[in-house]
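We both want to read discrete structure tokens more fluently, so let's practise on a single case. Would you supply a protein for us yourself, any chain you care to pick? Would you write everything just below, so we can both look at the same thing?
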Amino acid sequence: MSAVPLLLQARLDALAVALQGNVASSVFDALYERQGEALQLGTPVAYDAAGIPFQLGLKGASGKPFCLSNADLSILVGLDPHEYCVVLTFRAVFLATTTIEAVQDLTKRLAHHFLSNEPRAFRVRRVDLCADVTGVVFTSEDRESFVGRARGFVRQETRDVSADGSTRFTGLSIAMGNPLSARLYDKTEELRVKFDAEHEKRQTEEHTLRSAGWDGESSVWRLEFQIRGDALSELNARDLMTLADRLDPIWNYLTGAPPRGRGAWLRLIDRASASRKERCSLDARWLPFQQARFNRDSLLPAVRQDARRGGVPLANALGNMLSFLAASGKLSEASGWLPERVIAEDFFRLTEAIVSDPGLVKRYVEQRDGT
């Protein structure tokens, strides 16, 4: 094991995107014709989309009649009540070796092939974000050390390792089955069990890890978040074309902005540091995960809004605050010396301070009212 925890990589590990628009009639005709040939032959047939070779299956999936696939992605095509007629699901190996800008370009190319008009939306349906760290060890006892908005949903993962049914701990899963869930697991163990040494998936993953500093022997632990459904809307991550700028704020919301991580959806604490969980400091093993970055220019954590009940975006909250200060005469000439990023950073720090000290607001009100 490495002497100190080492962050090896952070990346997009799964992505599904639905294209909103009408499928061209010529595309439907070609798909029906080729699928008929596949049914006659009893085997998938070749289909070319935007100059990219795919295999067209004998049947569709998820309510859509056509399913195309290759090593990089799968595509479902069919009518939809909301006109999300084309759904792209990118594979992990492709995402590990491709920039998000290249993914966006490929999506546009495929939209131009399948749709009769410009897509009205590139709607993200699923995002998985992950970070890999070596030089750390986790045990089943750590399930009691997770706190945050996801606490109470931690489940232990084990794997059979012998014929007598004995098992060993391989990780933890948090809030599985919800729109926002997480897993912390031994990635090297998973690769060795699921794939032989020559498999493309294992070779690609291990090569990437070695290039980042992995010694090839010690365990690599992966923290992975799956985001779908309402959680994507609440985190403002529905648009593929702006997704790159959202990844770091979302990760900071999920793991907590370092160094304290207050207000995080999930964090790991050192239970020996205080008698009460809310006062415990972060476990040192959590810090390298917090430091993961997908976009080096991003600093602020995301603000999650309730997609069902609405909510006030950070920009609106800041606007209201500035309007109040301006009306009171305390924000004269602010536009010249108070950039929006500085305002946002200070506003977040203030929010973090309030959350970390529940008695702060009460003491302020008492002092203000002279009670």
User: Anything to note?
Assistant: The CA atoms of residues 59 and 65 lie 6 Å apart. The first helix runs from residue 25 to 41. The radius of gyration is 24 Å.
